[in-house]
Amino acid sequence: MEDNFLLSLKRDYSANPPQFFYENPSHRRVSFCSNGDYLAGWRPSCSHARSVLFREVNSGTLSSMGHASIIFGSFKFLRVLDLEFVVVDSFSTELNHLRYLAVQTTESSIPSSIENLWNFQTFIIKRTEGQEVQLPDTFWRLIKLRHVCISTRASFNLHNAEESLDASPSKLDNLATLSSPYVSRAEDMKRILSKTPNLRKLKCELGDSWENRFPVLVSLHRLETLKAHFSKFPKVGPSRLNFPLNLKKLTLCNFYLPPSEISIIAKLVNLEILKLQQVVFEREEWEVIDEEFPKLKLLKLENLELSQWSASDEAFYNLRRLV
Predict the structure, then answer these.
(1) Residue 135: is it exposed, middle or buried by C-beta count within 10 angstroms (0-12/13-18/19+)?
(2) What value does the mean pLDDT take over residues 117-125?
């Protein structure tokens, strides 16, 4: 193929201020590498682009972009917008063809007009300084979503949307990845899971009100990866642990585990990776008996309260790594 797969923009230093240009204005994929000072200058020359990637010249630093929604508002054909290393104050919700967006933001909430992005499939967002991002009720109307990854944690205002969510038959059937919702109530988790029946990867934080309860996850038949973190260390272990049979990777953080609950994990026949972080074992003892953890390949233990650990010869039969 003579046409380049990805075209890098050049800067015209003879202009004042410096402008960005390239010779083929109909090129579909554009990679932009520069300081963030002149980002608006390249808008006129590549408004036909389908994919835009930006990287800062000085690696390890972040650029900031003001009026991002205006800058990209004219990119009517844009499908991929990768601003993972750019901090923006806003982003356009009028890009009807947009399928992929990675961005960092200073805003605490996502606008309800995000529902206009009806072709949206992948949403990756980071809040500066690791703060929470609130998602609007209209998020549940983006039925083409496949992957949602929000660093630190995302919150849903489900208290004000209970009736509309329960009445609406629409589901995010295509959603495979959801990371990382903060869920304060069991009722909220039930609603989230009812709208996302085909999740394969779930990372969530459980609020203070969960105490010794654990989400009902057995309905997620396709779930393969789960990370659950209690925001407040429970006084007693979570009762009635339950996991889908297809689960392959499990991470538990800030947990209290009695023998009855750890035995439930040990019987997961497809579990290959288990990570226990800040976990307290009852009486600080853990006994692993024959045929438990039959397919486990990797076991990571971090900051445990465990003084005695015993395992039979037939336990951890396929274990390859202990970290």
Answers:
(1) buried
(2) 95
